[in-house]
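New here. Your pick:
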Amino acid sequence: MSMKHELWLEPDGCQTFCLARIHGDDARNLLSANSQLIWTIEADSCFEAMTKYYSFMESGEYRTDFREHDQMSYAELGWDK
């Protein structure tokens, strides 16, 4: 199951990359009022989302110390409910 992710840009230049809808509510609640949604993607796992984010930001290859967990699909983690 693929889930939508959002990249937000705050007026001070800081960014927030989070899940859309209910799973990202806590992160979006911390954004300032003038923040702008600048990019969205669909991904099946945290690893896929971060890999796409790193590519979008031209930041090289995404690496994690938790590859096995990060590559678990959102459905496997029970987040598709």
